[in-house]
Amino acid sequence: MRKNILTLSFLCSALLLLLAPCQRAQAQQASANPTAQPTASLTESDKISRLIYFVGNLQGATFIRNGGEHTPKDAAAHLQSKLNKHHAKIKTANDFIDLLATKSSATGEYYQIKMANGSTTETYKLLQAELARIESGSSH
Fold first, then answer.
1. Do residue 96 and residue 112 come from a single domain?
2. How many whole angstroms separate alpha carbon 41 and alpha carbon 66?
């Protein structure tokens, strides 16, 4: 009996040692890419992070803010800056879209996105669709 317990203990320890690198890699991937986290455990802050990540990684898109054109990375940085400044007002991902990512607080002009295919849409519409996708748990 004691021999079986020692063998089982050894096997469990060996398994944990084998799994440790996988767990570290998974944790690193999740921190580098906020979309890697399972949707069931997402907080509102996680959803907002995913939305900003989504904006920053829209290939071939151009963001139009107050008449100027901006890269996806610049647009994401702008949204992050607005979030940092007004975080106390934002309780949900919908608040983020409605209060910060819809229009300019300076001019009232709606933010727009020109997609790689040439179509243009208001940013809030694209973010609402992306939030619905995030909350449904479907992947891109």
1. yes
2. 36
